[in-house]
Amino acid sequence: MQDQIEQLVARALEELAGTPAADLDDWRRRYTGRSGELTGILRGIGKLSAGERPLAGQLANAARQRLESAFEDRKTVVEAESSADVEAIDVTLPGYRPVVGGLHPVTQTLRDIRRVFANIGFRAVDSPEVEWDEYNFEKLNIPRDHPARDMWDTFFVDNPDRPGEMLLRTHTSPAQARVMEQTDPPIRIITPGRCYRYEDVDASHEATFFQVEGLAVDTNITMADLRGTLEYFARALFGEDRRIRIRGSYFPFTEPSCEAEMSCHVCGGDGCRVCGRTGWIEMLGAGMVHPDVLEGVGYDHRKYSGFAFGMGVERIAMLRYGIDDIRHFYRNDLRFLRQFN
Ligand code: FA5
């Protein structure tokens, strides 16, 4: 038995010396594993005479330890060799290009609008997206049975404590009342934010879209200030050559009210699907803050006057980038979005 063990150890060690990393486990299985050769010898010890057994047991255990420790040594050696291989990798090969994200075109436009108004002293403030009917309508001179409510198809929010009073804001105008209630004039603010309407979605209408509200209140604010501010804005964002026109309109919370439109970027003013065949794209609604709204927030309308406007940010982005369908913005199509990075 002694010879048998010694021969086995010699053979196993010789083989181990040339075994690569991938075959090490196989070597172990064949010699010291559960059905390996050495294990077979160990099992045979039971059949020896009582006198032979102790020596054979010692020899077999010593052989097992030797093979196990030779295995560990070999493993260390081949691992060191393979990390040396890594060092040999050609570091001059080009690496993987990291994927870099970009800002959404609506975010870019929002930031630019904020910057343009910050330059003339308009501070940006936040206002809630989930709003009370009171702020979205009533404080804006639109009581419950007012026909002008049809201008804003509204998503109402279930609130068991105040049924029928909670909604997703249909415009950013509630910010007007919120800011005026908390601040004394002079006021110059903008409120960028998301709005929600139960719309028939088409090339220029989304059910979720962004608006930027503007509000200026002070003594002696006139329609000329509104016009000057809008013209400054249009030039700063679109350049000197963009045509803009202001037409009379109606909003219950402004008097007089108007709408600013810009020449259509798709047809250049001839009329197309995007501009509804008019040649003009509606950009914003505006007007002088209604005296009832001023009084409603505790301002003396004989002392103070103000102008307000609310613009659609996607519409501005469409005009800037020549986009012919508002629905592109929220389809998450990377082929579209990558063009703005
Ligand atoms: C309003 O929402 C008024 N609150 C604007 C206002 C503010 C008037 C202050 C007077 C004083 P209007 O519903 O017209 O008005 O919307 C204003 C702008 O939001 C539109 O000119 C348009 O650019 C944009 N807009 C309106 N509805 C949508 C829609 N469904 N999808 C995308 N943009 C829209």
Topology of this protein?
Elements: H1 2-17, H2 24-31, H3 37-44, H4 53-87, H5 105-118, E1 123-124, E2 130-132, H6 133-136, E3 156-157, E4 166-168, H7 174-182, E5 187-196, E6 208-218, H8 223-238, E7 244-251, E8 254-263, E9 280-289, H9 291-296, E10 305-312, H10 313-321, H11 334-337
Helix pairs in contact: 1-4, 3-4, 5-10
Bound molecules: adenosine-5'-[phenylalaninyl-phosphate].
Question: Can you give a write-up of this model?
Answer:
- By secondary structure, the chain is α+β, with helices and mostly antiparallel strands.
- It has 2 domains: 2-84; 106-340, Bira Bifunctional Protein, Domain 2 (BirA Bifunctional Protein, domain 2), CATH 3.30.930.
- The chain contains 11 helices and 10 strands.
- The protein has a 7-stranded mixed beta sheet, sandwiched between helices.
- The longest helix is centred in the first third of the chain and has 35 residues, at 53-87.
- It is elongated.
- The two termini are 78 Å apart.
- The structure holds adenosine-5'-[phenylalaninyl-phosphate] (FA5).
- Adenosine-5'-[phenylalaninyl-phosphate] is lined by residues 171, 173, 197, 199, 205-206, 209, 211, 213, 251, 254, 257, 282-287, 308-312, 314-315, 326.
